[in-house]
From TrEMBL:
InterPro entries: ABC_transp_permease (IPR001851)
Keywords carried by this UniProt record: Cell membrane, Membrane, Transmembrane, Transmembrane helix
Superkingdom in the source lineage: Bacteria
Taxonomic placement: Bacteria, Bacillati, Actinomycetota, Actinomycetes, Propionibacteriales
Entries under Pfam families matching the protein: BPD_transp_2 (PF02653)
Protein's name in the database: ABC transporter permease
Location relative to the cell: Cell membrane
Region annotated Disordered, chain positions: 1-33
Membrane topology classification: Multi-pass membrane protein
CDD domains: TM_PBP1_transp_AraH_like (cd06579)
Segments traversing the membrane: 52-72, 78-98, 129-149, 156-179, 199-216, 243-266, 278-296, 303-319, 325-345
Length: 366
């Protein structure tokens, strides 16, 4: 099946784009769970694509019993959601970058620069809305610079490591080597609650809803994912791949800046120090969600659940009075285990599909 250069293939939902491993060998079409596939293959595909939701549910059940009666409550659920918010925003930036074929390691620097620019404007009497727009514009500008440099066939990882250093220095220049404390103008998006729900939770909900719709229901979003999967094939179909390669960096930078502004709103302080833990935590959530680092595959809802799993583990261990560093140990082990399971499921699905195709061909000849 061929696609027009002016339209991208549609998907059936907010999940990852169709992959070659889900196609019946030799048929040129994607198998549909429950109709074309035997139920054994359907269950394996569901376990591969939706297993992280089941994993989170298991953690919730486990901690509900182990940390009773404090864990299973509305107040604690809001604490987990709020704790996961910042990670979720940065993970969205990392995830969209990875899914579209780039890995932006400059997000901590982007966050620091956006925070300091916003803080400088606020402390010099400028309007709150203008300060926030300027902070977000920093993220867009950084993304464009990263994207344009990458078009010169430079390694994106090297580029973003270099820009991380530059951005950290620029943030310190803007702040004069100090911080901007007392930024209470931003509490409406940081510490304030609406209907009992912390403001960052609303921001994350909007980010992931809009992001999911964009990637799965719009032409540009689908093309962006396609470029991440195979930029050369997309280029040969007539689509301007450089535009979408830069767009991937821009979206990543935008979410990095947004994360920096949320952190500033929560702490009421703009800090020029770029925290490396930001990128590592976000990468952990993305990897836990099973997003392929080769690009072209992934799902924002899974990334969100990955962020919630990290917050759930930390929350449950804290309730039990266990030192926070054990959460890091458990998260690392969980990540290794999830990678092993994901590889095993991919192999099992591929083997079952090949076997199913051979049986189908044999039955037709018979």
């Amino acid at each position: 099946m061929t696609t027009s250069p002016h339209a991208a293939p549609r998907t059936d939902g907010p999940g990852p784009a169709p992959s070659a491993s889900d196609a019946e060998p030799g048929s040129g079409r994607r198998l549909r769970p429950g109709r074309d596939m035997p139920w054994s293959i359907t269950l394996l595909v569901l376990a591969r694509d939706r297993g992280i939701f089941l994993l989170w549910a298991l953690f919730l059940v486990f901690f509900s019993f182990w940390c009773a009666p404090y864990f299973a409550s509305i107040d604690n659920a809001l604490l987990i959601a709020n704790a996961a918010s910042l990670t979720a925003v940065f993970a969205a930036g990392v995830g969209i970058g990875v899914m579209t074929g780039v890995l932006d390691l400059s997000l901590p620097g982007t966050a620091a620069l956006a925070s300091c620019v916003c803080g400088w404007l606020l402390t010099h009497g400028h309007a709150t809305w203008l300060s926030l727009v300027a902070g977000l514009a920093c993220g867009v500008l950084v993304g464009m610079v990263n994207g344009l440099i990458s078009l010169g066939r430079f390694n994106p990882i090297i580029i973003t490591i270099a820009t991380l250093s530059v951005l950290t220095g620029l943030a310190a220049v803007v702040a004069g080597g100090y911080t901007f404390p007392g930024l209470t103008q931003l509490t409406f998006m940081g510490t304030d609650r609406y209907l009992g729900v912390p403001a960052p939770v609303y921001i994350v909900a909007v980010v992931y809803l809009v992001g999911t719709i964009f990637l799965t229901r719009t032409r540009d979003g689908l093309r962006l994912m396609a470029v991440g999967g195979n930029a050369e094939a997309v280029r040969r179909s007539g689509i301007p791949t450089p535009v979408y390669q830069v767009l991937g960096f821009v979206l990543s930078g935008l979410f990095g800046a947004l994360g920096g502004l949320i952190a500033t709103a929560v702490t009421t302080e703009a800090n020029p120090q770029a925290s490396p833990s930001i990128i590592f935590t976000a990468l952990t959530a993305v990897a836990l969600a099973g997003v392929s680092l080769s690009g072209g595959e992934g799902s924002l809802p899974r990334i969100l659940v990955g962020s919630l799993i990290l917050a759930t583990i930390t929350n449950g261990l804290t309730i039990r009075g266990i030192q926070p560093y054990w959460a890091t140990v458990i998260t690392g082990l969980l990540l290794l285990g999830s990678l092993a399971v994901d590889r095993a499921l991919h192999r099992a699905v591929s083997e079952r599909l090949v076997s199913h195709a051979h049986l189908t061909v044999h039955d037709k000849k018979a």
